[in-house]
Amino acid sequence: MSGIDTLAKAIILMGVALVVIGLLLLLAGRVPYLGRLPGDIIYRRDNVTIYIPLATMLLLSILLTIALNLFFRR
């Protein structure tokens, strides 16, 4: 296998990964309470809104860690 074949496969894999991530982001907006969990910080003043989804990030991190450990376990 030449270097160009390896590069082509890597680019295709990255494209597929971007499509999957995009679809997940589209579907994430439809999950109830995602982004509005207790522990998510919202700061509103006049024309400024700062949103820090701490609890949502923690929950997603735990779920992804469990899923990837189950998927890649040998």
Automatic annotation (TrEMBL):
Give the record's keywords alphabetically.
Answer: Membrane, Transmembrane, Transmembrane helix
Q: Mind telling me which residue stretches traverse the membrane in this protein?
A: 7-28, 48-72
Q: Which domain of life is it from?
A: Bacteria
A Pfam short name: DUF2905
Q: Kindly indicate whether the keyword Membrane belongs to this entry.
A: yes
Q: Does the keyword S-adenosyl-L-methionine apply?
A: no
Supply the InterPro entries for this chain: DUF2905 (IPR021320)
| PANTHER family listed in its UniProt record | BSR5223 PROTEIN
Q: What is this protein called?
A: DUF2905 domain-containing protein
Which species does this protein come from?
Thermalbibacter longus
